[in-house]
C-alpha cells in the first residue's frame, strides 16, 4: 500500500520543505530589483519559479507549500506566490515528480465548497497522492465583502466545508449526483490557527496543525497544547531563513526566523524537532544569497541529518 501524503511528510520523524514564492525580494537587493521591474511591494519575481521548484524536488526537499491570497492588498504588502492556489498546484504537479504539494492555507469560507472539493480531488489525482490541504478561516476582513461572504460567520462556514470535504459531498447533493474525480488517495486536512473553532474541535476534526513560526521554546508549549487535543497528529511550522555564507556563523533571530550558517541552522532544526515539530518549511524571501546556491547547500549539508532515517527505511 502506498503511503499517504501525511505519512510521507513525517516519515523518519522530521522533514524539511520549502514555502513559496521562490524569491528573495525582502532583501535590499531583491527590493531594488523589484523597484527596477516595477512590481508592487510584496510581489515576488517569478522568473525562475519553475526551475527552482524542480530543483527542490530533485534535491530531496519533502514539500512545497503555497499560500492562498485571493486579492493583493497594499496594506498587507504581500502577494504570496501570486498564482491562484489550485491552478498553481496543478502546474507544480505536472513539472515535479516526488515532492509533496501543500497549501498553507486555503481560506475555505471564501470559496465555493463544491468547487474546492473538486479542485482538491483533481490535484490529488494529478499528483498521484501528493496533496496536503492546509485550510483556514481567513484573517483579512477586506476580502469577505468582495466575495459576498460574511466575515462574522466564517467559523460556521468553515465547519460546514470541513464536513463536506470529509464526506466527498455525498451528504450535500441530491441522489444520483456526485463530484468527480473520486480520488484514490485521502486528502489530509491541516489547519492553520484555530479557524474560529475550539481547540477540542480542531483536535478531533483535523489531521494536522500548521503552526505560526516561533522559537523552539515557543513550539515546545504549542506542540504540547496541540497533542493534548490531537494526540500524535502532525505538527508543522515554518522559518524565514537567511542562510549565511560562513557555515559557522551563529544564529541571530529576526521576525519569523533567523540568519544562520548551516551549522547553527542544523542545531536549530534539531531543537525544533526535539520540541515536537515534525516538519519545517523554509521561507527564503529574506535570504540574501542566490536561492539555487542556498538550496543546494542545505540539501548537501543539512537534509542528510534529518532525512537519512526516512531514506534508510525506504531502502
Describe the structure.
This protein has a single domain, classed as TIM Barrel (Alpha-Beta Barrel), CATH 3.20.20. Helix content is 40%, strand content 16%. Helix 3 (49-59) packs parallel to helix 11 (291-301). The chain is an alpha/beta fold and 315 residues long. The protein has an eight-stranded parallel β-barrel with strand order 1-2-3-5-6-7-8-11, surrounded by five helices. The two termini are 16 Å apart.
Quickly describe the structure:
With 315 residues, the protein is of the alpha/beta class.
Number of strand elements: 11
Read across the widest sheet, the strand sequence of neighbours is 1-2-3-5-6-7-8-11
Distinct helical segment count = 12
| Shape-level CATH architecture | Alpha-Beta Barrel
By CATH reckoning, the class would read Alpha Beta
Mean pLDDT score:
95
Largest sheet: 8 strands, parallel, barrel
Fourth CATH level, the homologous superfamily: Luciferase-like domain
Radius of gyration: 19 Å
Sheet-strand content, in percent, reads 15-25%
Instruction: Give the low-pLDDT segments.
Output: none
Structural class: alpha/beta
The amount of helix comes to 40-55%
Amino acid at each position: 500500500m502506498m503511503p499517504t501524503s501525511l505519512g510521507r511528510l513525517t516519515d523518519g520523524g522530521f522533514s524539511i520543505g520549502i514555502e513559496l514564492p521562490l524569491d528573495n525580494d525582502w532583501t535590499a537587493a531583491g527590493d531594488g530589483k523589484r523597484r527596477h521591474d516595477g512590481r508592487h511591494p510584496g510581489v515576488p519575481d517569478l522568473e525562475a519559479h519553475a526551475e527552482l521548484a524542480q530543483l527542490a524536488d530533485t534535491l530531496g526537499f519533502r514539500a512545497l507549500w503555497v499560500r492562498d491570497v485571493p486579492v493583493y492588498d497594499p496594506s498587507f504588502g504581500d502577494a504570496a506566490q501570486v498564482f491562484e492556489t489550485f491552478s498553481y498546484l496543478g502546474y507544480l504537479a505536472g513539472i515535479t515528480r516526488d515532492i509533496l504539494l501543500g497549501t498553507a492555507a486555503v481560506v475555505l469560507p471564501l470559496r465555493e465548497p463544491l468547487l474546492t472539493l473538486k479542485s482538491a480531488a483533481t490535484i490529488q489525482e494529478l499528483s498521484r497522492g501528493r496533496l496536503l490541504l492546509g485550510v483556514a478561516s481567513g484573517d483579512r476582513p477586506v476580502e469577505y465583502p468582495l466575495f459576498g461572504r460574511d466575515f462574522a460567520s466564517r467559523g460556521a462556514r468553515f465547519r460546514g466545508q470541513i464536513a463536506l470535504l470529509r464526506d466527498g459531498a455525498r451528504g450535500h447533493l441530491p441522489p444520483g449526483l456526485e463530484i468527480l474525480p473520486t480520488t484514490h488517495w485521502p486528502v489530509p486536512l491541516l489547519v492553520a490557527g484555530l479557524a474560529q473553532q475550539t481547540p477540542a474541535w480542531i483536535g478531533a476534526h483535523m489531521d494536522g496543525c500548521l503552526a505560526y513560526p516561533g522559537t523552539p521554546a515557543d513550539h515546545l508549549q504549542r506542540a504540547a497544547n496541540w497533542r493534548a487535543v490531537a494526540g500524535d497528529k502532525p505538527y508543522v511550522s515554518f522559518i524565514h531563513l537567511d542562510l549565511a555564507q560562513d557555515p559557522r556563523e551563529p544564529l541571530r533571530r529576526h521576525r519569523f526566523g533567523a540568519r544562520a550558517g548551516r551549522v547553527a541552522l542544523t542545531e536549530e532544526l534539531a531543537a525544533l524537532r526535539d520540541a515536537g515539530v515534525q516538519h519545517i518549511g523554509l521561507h527564503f524571501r529574506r535570504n540574501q544569497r542566490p536561492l539555487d546556491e542556498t538550496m543546494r547547500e542545505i540539501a548537501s549539508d543539512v537534509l542528510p541529518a534529518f532525512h537519512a532515517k526516512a531514506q534508510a527505511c525506504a531502502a
